[in-house]
Design a protein that fits this description.
- The complex is a heterodimer of chains A (271) and B (271).
- Chain A is 75% helix and 0% strand.
- By secondary structure, chain A is mainly α.
- Chain A has one domain: MetI-like fold.
- Chain B is an all-alpha fold.
- Classes of the chains: A mainly alpha (271), B mainly alpha (271).
- At the A-B interface, helix 1, helix 2, helix 3, helix 4 and helix 5 of A face helix 2, helix 3, helix 4, helix 6 and helix 7 of B.
C-alpha cells in the first residue's frame, strides 16, 4: 500500500468533503424552511396577546381554583357514555377491520388486483382522518349524540387495527399454513386453524391498545357534539365556568390513567 | 396403557379454549362482558327521526365528497393548509430542539437524580393531556390562531420525543461509554462520542415520525380555534358547504399520505 507524501497532512474526518457539504446544506435548508415558516405562520399573530399570556394564564388559574367539586355529580352519566362510546366504537371498528385486514394481507387476499387496493385505501383513509374530524362529519349527518361518537371512534379504529392486523397476517409462519393444508383443510379451516392462532394474541393486544387510545379520544369528542364528558367540557368552556373545567380535566386525567393501567395489565397478561 | 386409550377412542378431540383456561373464570369474564354490552347498548338513546332526516344529509355529504369543490373557497383552503404546514414545521423544529436536553436529562444513566426527576415529570405532564385539551388552554391564553397551535404541537412533541429519547439512552451499550470514559473524557464528551452515535439514527427516525403526527394533529386542533385546516373544515361544515368540506378532506388525506410515505422513506434511508 503506497503512502503518498501528503498522507501526513491528512486529518481523520468522519465524512468525505462532498458528504460534509451535503450535510451542511441539509441543515441550512432546514433552517431556511424554519425561518420562512415562522414568518408566514406569524403573519397574523397579535403579539400583544402573546405578551399578555402569562397574565391570562394566571387569571385562568385563579378562576379555576378551587375546583367546584360538587359539579362531580353531573359527570357520572357523561363518563358512562364516554366509556360506552370508546368500548362499543372499538368493537364495531374491530369487527369491520378484521375482514378488511384479511382482504388487505398479501397472503390471504382473495383478489390481489382489485380487493387488496380497495382494502388498503379504506385503511389509509380511515387512518388519516382523526376521530374528532369523523365526529364533526357524523354529528352533521346523523345528529348530535353518542351514536355519532361510536361511529366516529369505529371509523378511526378500522385503520389502526386493520393496518396492524394485516401486517401481522403477512408476517405469519407459512409452514404452519402448509401443515394444515396438508391435512386437506379448506380455505376457511386454513384461516381458522393456521392463521388465526398465530395472529390472535397480537390482535387482542392491538384491540386493547386501541381501546385505551379510544378512551382518550372519546373524552373530547363531545366538543363537536358527539356526547360524553366532552359535552360538559364544551358547555363549561362556553359559559367560562373554569372552576368546572378544572374538575372535568381532573376526571379526564384520572380516566385516561386508569384506562392506560387496565390496558397495560391486560396486554401483559395475554402476550 | 390400555386404560388410557379406551376412553380416548370414545371422545372426540375438542379445541382447547384460547385465552382463559379455567372454565369458571372464562364464563365469568365473558358473561360479565356480555352483561356490560347489553347495559351499554341499552343506554344509547336513538332518535330515529333525526337519523332518517340525517340520511338525506349523509347522501349530500357523500355527493360533496365525490364532487369536491376546490375553487370557490380556494383562498380559505389555501390559508388553512399554509397554516397547518407552517405550524407543523415550526412546532417540530422547536419541539425537537427542546426535547433533546430534556430527553438527556430524563435518562437515568447519565443525569443526576434531581434533574432526572424534573425532566421525567415534564414528560409525564406533557403526555397525560391530549393535544386538544392543551390547545383549549393555549387558545385561552394566547388568543386564536396558529401561534396557539404551534405551542400546542411543540408541547406535545416534547413529551413524545423526550420520553422515547430518554428510554433509548437508558438502553445504550454501556461498554462504549466505558471505553470513552477510559480515555479521560468529561461528561459532555461522553454524551457526544459514546451516547450520540448510538441514539442518533433512532432520534432522526422518531423526529420524522413526529413531523407526520404533528401534521395530522394540526388538522384537528383548528376545531378549538388553534388555526390550521381544521378551522376551515369546521367552518365549512357549519355552513353546510359539503363540497368544500369534501375538498378539504381529500386534501388532508393526500397530505397525510404524502407525509407518511415521505417520512417512512427518509427513515428507511437513514437507518
Amino acid at each position: 500500500m503506497p503512502i503518498g507524501p501528503d498522507a501526513a497532512d491528512k486529518t481523520w474526518s468522519k465524512h468525505t468533503r462532498r458528504g460534509e457539504w451535503m450535510i451542511w446544506g441539509g441543515w441550512f435548508a432546514l433552517a431556511v424552511v424554519f425561518v420562512l415558516s415562522w414568518q408566514v405562520m406569524n403573519e397574523r399573530t397579535i403579539w400583544a396577546f402573546v405578551e399578555d399570556a402569562p397574565r391570562q394564564g394566571a387569571d385562568l388559574l385563579s378562576r379555576s381554583w378551587p375546583p367546584r367539586w360538587d359539579y362531580l355529580g353531573n359527570l357520572w352519566q357523561p363518563l358512562w357514555d364516554t366509556l360506552n362510546m370508546a368500548t362499543l366504537g372499538t368493537l364495531l371498528g374491530t369487527a369491520m377491520a378484521v375482514p378488511l385486514a384479511f382482504m388487505a394481507a398479501r397472503n390471504t387476499s382473495p383478489s390481489l388486483l382489485f380487493l387488496r387496493p380497495v382494502a388498503l385505501f379504506i385503511i389509509v383513509a380511515s387512518r388519516s382522518i382523526n376521530s374528532l374530524i369523523w365526529a364533526l362529519l357524523l354529528v352533521a349527518i346523523i345528529g348530535p349524540g353518542i351514536l355519532a361518537g361510536i361511529i366516529a371512534i369505529a371509523l378511526r379504529s378500522i385503520g389502526f387495527v386493520g393496518k396492524l392486523l394485516y401486517e401481522s397476517i403477512e408476517e405469519i409462519d407459512e409452514t404452519q399454513v402448509e401443515a394444515v393444508r396438508a391435512t386437506g383443510a379448506g380455505q376457511l379451516q386454513l384461516i381458522d386453524y393456521a392463521i388465526v392462532p398465530q395472529v390472535l394474541p397480537a390482535f387482542v393486544g392491538m384491540t386493547i391498545f386501541r381501546w385505551d387510545i379510544n378512551i382518550r379520544e372519546s373524552t373530547i369528542l363531545g366538543l363537536v357534539g358527539a356526547g360524553g364528558i366532552g359535552l360538559q367540557l364544551q358547555g363549561s368552556l362556553n359559559t367560562l365556568a373554569w372552576s368546572q373545567v378544572s374538575v372535568i380535566f381532573a376526571v379526564i386525567l384520572l380516566t385516561v390513567i386508569v384506562a392506560e393501567w387496565v390496558s397495560s395489565k391486560v396486554r401483559r397478561a395475554i402476550i | 396403557m390400555v386404560s388410557a386409550v379406551a376412553p380416548a377412542a370414545s371422545r372426540r378431540w375438542r379445541r382447547p379454549p384460547v385465552f382463559i383456561k379455567s372454565r369458571f373464570w372464562r364464563i365469568a369474564i365473558y358473561g360479565g362482558f356480555f352483561a356490560y354490552l347489553v347495559m351499554a347498548l341499552w343506554s344509547i338513546d336513538l332518535d330515529w327521526t333525526r337519523i332518517v332526516q340525517g340520511l338525506d344529509r349523509g347522501q349530500r355529504f357523500i355527493e360533496g365528497f365525490l364532487t369536491p369543490d376546490f375553487t370557490s373557497r380556494w383562498r380559505d383552503i389555501r390559508q388553512g393548509m399554509v397554516e397547518s404546514i407552517t405550524m407543523t414545521v415550526c412546532a417540530s423544529v422547536v419541539g425537537i430542539l427542546i426535547s433533546i436536553p430534556i430527553g438527556i436529562g430524563a435518562a437515568r444513566n447519565i443525569a443526576p437524580w434531581p434533574v432526572h426527576a424534573v425532566c421525567r415529570s415534564i414528560i409525564a405532564i406533557s403526555r397525560a393531556f391530549q393535544e386538544i385539551i392543551i390547545a383549549i388552554l393555549f387558545v385561552a391564553m394566547f388568543g386564536f390562531g396558529p401561534f396557539a397551535g404551534f405551542l400546542t404541537l411543540s408541547f406535545a412533541t416534547i413529551g413524545f420525543i423526550s420520553k422515547l429519547l430518554a428510554d433509548d439512552i437508558e438502553e445504550v451499550d454501556e461498554a462504549q461509554a466505558e471505553a470513552i470514559r477510559a480515555t479521560g473524557a468529561g461528561w459532555w464528551q461522553i454524551v457526544n462520542y459514546a451516547i450520540q452515535p448510538q441514539v442518533m439514527p433512532r432520534l432522526i427516525g422518531l423526529s420524522l415520525y413526529r413531523v407526520d403526527i404533528n401534521f395530522r394533529e394540526s388538522s384537528v386542533i383548528g376545531i378549538v380555534g388553534a388555526g390550521g385546516i381544521g378551522a376551515t373544515l369546521n367552518t365549512s361544515m357549519e355552513r353546510y358547504d359539503y363540497d368544500t368540506a369534501g375538498a378539504i378532506l381529500i386534501l388532508i388525506i393526500i397530505f397525510v399520505m404524502l407525509a407518511e410515505y415521505g417520512s417512512s422513506h427518509i427513515r428507511k434511508r437513514v437507518q
